[in-house]
Amino acid sequence: MVEIGISGGSTIRALILGFAAVLSLAAAAPAAAGRLIEPALRIADGGSQGPQVALTLDACSGLVDHRILDELIADGIPATIFVTGRWLKGNADAFRLMLAHPELFEIEDHGENHLPAVIGTERPYGLEPAGTAEAVAKEVLNGRADIARAGGGEVTWFRGATALYSPDAIELIASLGLRIAGFSLNGDLGASVGEKAALARMLTARDGDVIIAHINQPKRPAGAGVAEGIRQLKAHGFRFVRLRDATVSGG
Predict the structure, then answer these.
(1) What gap in Å lies between CA 163 and CA 214, rounded to an integer?
(2) Which of 41, 83, 177, 208 would staple 251 via disulfide (CB 3.0–4.6 Å)?
(3) Residue 213, pLDDT score
C-alpha cells in the first residue's frame, strides 16, 4: 500500500498492483538514453457513416484560444480537452463555458503542473521531467483531483506533457486506472507552426485518426489554422467523436 499526498490536504490511499516494483526499478536504475515512448492511438473507421476523427486538444497553461473554442461551439463539434491544474487556475470562465456544453466536451487529465511523465533524467523537448515514480503519480492524481474540484467529473484518460513517457511511467499510469491518450496526427506541432502549416496538417486527416492540437495559445498563428482545419474537415464530410464515444486501438 502506498500513500500519495494530493494537493488541497487530502490523501489518496492507493493499492496499486506492481507499484512497489516500479518504485524499486526507478530507484535502482537511471533512465537509458533514447528510451522515451510516444504512444499511438487511433479510433475505429466511420464505416457507412463516413470518415470520423477524434479531436483532442491540450490546455497546458496560459489562456484559451477562442478561435478554436468558439468554432467548436458554433458548429457543434465534439472534442476531448486535456486540461492541467495550472490551466484551470487561470481560466475559470473558459472552463465553465466548456462545462456548459457537456454534449460537446469531454474533459480529461493533462496533469497538475505540465510535467512530462518521465521517471529518470531525460528531458523531452528540454522540459524538466517529473523524475520519480512518486512525482509522476502526484502529477496524474493531482491533475485528476483538480478537474474534480472544478466540476469536471471523473476522468478516464491521461496525456502527459510532451506526450512522451518512460516505459515505467506508462506502467505506473496504467496501474492508477487511467489510459494513456496517444494520437496519430499532430495538427500543430505544439502550436509551433504557422497558420498555413497547421491547416495543411489538419487536412491530412484520415478516417480513424486521433488528432492532437492545442487550445491554449491564442496569440500564436497555429490556432487559426487548426480552427479552419476543423471547419474544412466538417465541410468534407468528416464526423468528430470524443474518445469516450469511440472504439479505440492503442492506449
Answers:
(1) 12
(2) 41
(3) 98
Give the pLDDT mean for 3-24. 44
Mention every residue, 6+ apart, whose C-beta is less than 8 A from residue 9: none
- Tell me the pLDDT band of 168, cut-offs 50, 70 and 90: very high
- Distance separating alpha carbons of residues 63 and 91, to the nearest angstrom: 6
Global pTM exceeds 0.85: yes
Nine-digit cell at 220? 500564436
What is the C-alpha to C-alpha distance for residues 125 and 95, in angstroms, rounded to an integer? Answer: 28
Alpha carbon distance 154, 144 (integer Å): 8
Residue of 231, 174, 171 whose CA lies nearest to 198: 231
pLDDT of residue 14: 44
Cell of 158: 491521461
Question: Can you tell me the distance from the alpha carbon of 150 to that of 87, in angstroms, rounded to the nearest whole number?
Answer: 11
Q: Are 116 and 124 in contact (CB under 8 A)?
A: yes
Cross-strand bridge partners of residue 170: none
The answer to whether 201 and 213 are in contact (CB under 8 A) is no
How many CA atoms, within 13 angstroms, populate the side-chain half-sphere of residue 90? 11
